[in-house]
Amino acid sequence: MSEPAKQVHLGAAFPGVNSHTVWSDPRSGSQIDFSSFRHLARTAERGKFDFFFLAEGLRLREHRGEIFDLDVVGRPDTLPVLSALAAVTDRVGLAGTVNATFNEPFELARQFATLDHLSGGRAAWNVVTSSDAFTGANFRRGGFLDHADRYTRAAEFVEVARELWDAWTPDAVVADPAAGLFVKDGAIAEVRHRGPQFDIAARPTVPHGPQRHPVLIQAGNSGDGREFAAATADAIYTIHAELAMGQAFYADVKGRLAAYGRAPGDLKILPQATFVLGDTQEEARERARHIRLQQVSPQGAIAQLEQVWGRDLSGYDPDGPLPDVEPLADAAGVTRGRARHHRDPLAVARHWRQVAVAKQLSIRDLVIEVTGRHAFVGTPAQVAEEINTHVQSDACDGFIVSGHLTPTGLDEFVDTVIPELQERGVFRSEYHGTTLRDHLGLGHAQAPVR
After folding, report:
1. Cα–Cα distances in Å, from 104 out to 55, 152, 307, 336, 397?
2. Cα dist from 163 to 110, 140, 188, 200, 257, whole Å
3. What is the DSSP letter of 9?
4. Average confidence (pLDDT) over 46-62
5. CA 108 from chain center: how many Å?
6. Which of 272, 207, 267 is closest to 231 using CA atoms?
7. pLDDT digits 0-9 by tens, 17-37
8. Angle between helices 78-86 and 105-119 (to 10 degrees)
9. Which residues contact 40 (CB under 8 A, 6 or more apart)?
10. In what helix (H) or strand (E) does residue 149 lie, and over which residues does it extend?
C-alpha cells in the first residue's frame, strides 16, 4: 500500500506596511486598528489554518539617515494583540515574534504562559535574535551582544523558559475547601538557574498551561539558526520556498534532529510565500505584475539599490539602466533596522548586472525580479496543486502565507484555494483538536520527571 498523503500545514501572516504589501490600494486598511487583526485572524480560522502569525518591528527603519516611510512605520506590540485575538477566536493558533536578545526569561515565559491560558492552548512564540546595535540602542543594554553570541543567549533563554513553564506540576491546584488546601505541597518548584547569560531564582506565578510549553517557532536560515531549530524548535520559518532549494533545506534541517533525540515529525518546516490568483494563469500573471509594480515604487527601487551600492543613487532614473559606478566595498549603514542579506555588495552587483543584461531590465524591473518573496501565481487549482507538490516532495511541511492587502488579502485564498486542498485530501475540513500542538500534530510537551 502507498503511504498516505502528508497533510499541509498553513500559517497566516499579518502584512504590515512594506515592499510586500500595497498600502496605497483603496481597499487597503489599517495595520494598527484591532479590526484589521481580528479580520485576518477570523479569516484564517474560517479557513482552518494552523495559526495566525504576527511579526515584530522594534525600531523604525532608516535609509540614509532618515525614516523610510514606505517600510514598516507602525506596528503595535505583539502580545497585547494576540491576547485580544484570543477573545474573538476559538481554534486558530496565535503566534507572535518576540526577541530573545532584548527581553528576559521570567517576564517572557510568564507572558506566553498567560497567553496560552487565555487562548486555551493556542500560543506560539517565534524566537528571534539580534546583534544589531541600531535596534539595541532602544534598550538598556544597547548593542551589547556580539553576532556570534545571538544563539548562545537564545538557547539558554529557551532553556530557562522551559524550566519556568515546568515549575508547576499539572495537578498543582486542588482547590479543596474541606481540606483548606488550594495548592499541593511541593507542587511549585523554585527555579534556580545559573549560566553564562542568566542567573535567576524564581517561583513562577502562572500555573501549568494547556500545552505545558507554547509552540516554539524559529526564524533563521544560517548554520547556527538551523542547529538552534533542530535542538529547540517545533517549527522553523524559512525563506527557502523554491522546490529544489526547499528540498535541500528540508533534508539538511531534518537530518540534524536525530542528534537531539528527535524524529522528523517533531519539527515543521514552513517557508514564507505570497500568492496571486486569477481565472486563468495569464490573468494571474498580469495581476502579479501589476501588484509588484505597486509594491516596488520608483523611490523604493532606488532605495533597494542604494542598500547594495552603499551610495546616493537618487540621480538615477528608476526606469533606466543600472548605475555605471561600482558599489562601495562596505555598504553598511545605508539602511538600518533591516537585516542585511548582501554580505558581498560587489558580488551581488555583478550578479544583478548579469540578470539585467540578460533580461533587458531597468532598475525598477530588476528590483522586482530579485527581491520578491516566493509567490504562487495561477488559478486556485494550480496554486493548490503547487503547494501540495512542495509538501509531498519533502520541500516543506506547509507554508506561512500572506496576501498583499491588509487585512482582506487572505479572503480569496480561503474561499478558493482551501477547498481545492481539501478536495485533494491534504487539508482539514474541521479542526480535530483544540490546541496549536494538536493542529501541528506535535503532541503536548511532556512534563519533567521529579
Report:
1. 19, 14, 33, 25, 31
2. 12, 26, 12, 11, 22
3. E
4. 89
5. 18
6. 267
7. 666 788 888 998 988 999 999
8. 20
9. 12, 14, 52, 406, 407, 410
10. none
Cα four-point dihedral sign 129, 132, 138, 140: positive
Rounded to an integer, the average pLDDT of 297-306 is 89
Task: Provide the 3-class DSSP secondary structure of residue 125.
Answer: strand
Strand pairing class (181-183; 173-176): antiparallel
CA distance 58 to 397: 29
Give the Cα separation of 391 and 401 in Å (integer).
14
Q: Other C-beta atoms within 10 Å of 219: how many?
A: 21
Contact at 8 Å (CB) between 319 and 364?
A: yes
**Phi/psi at 4 (nearest 5 deg)?**
-65, 150
User: Please, which residues have CB within 8 angstroms of residue 253's CB and are 6 or more apart in sequence?
Assistant: 226, 229, 230, 236, 267, 269
What is the DSSP pairing of strand 173-176 with strand 123-128?
unpaired
Phi-psi region of 180 (alpha: psi -120 to 50; beta: other; left: phi over 0): left
Q: List the one residue out of 204, 193, 125 whose CA is nearest residue 156.
A: 193
What the block records as the C-alpha cell of 118 is 487565555
**Alpha helix locations (H) across 281-434?**
281-295, 298-309, 345-359, 363-371, 380-392, 411-412, 418-423
Q: What are the pLDDT digits (tens) for 141-163?
A: 656 677 778 888 999 999 999 99
The segment(s) of the chain belonging to CATH 3.20.20.30 are 9-168+194-278+379-440
User: What's this model's pTM, rounded to 2 decimal places?
Assistant: 0.92
- Answer yes or no: are the C-beta atoms of 435 and 122 closer than 8 Å: yes
d(C-alpha 259, C-alpha 31), whole Å:
42
* C-alpha cell read off for 371: 527581491
Superfamily (CATH) of domain 9-168+194-278+379-440: Luciferase-like domain (3.20.20.30)
The CA R_g of the chain, rounded to the nearest whole Å, is: 23
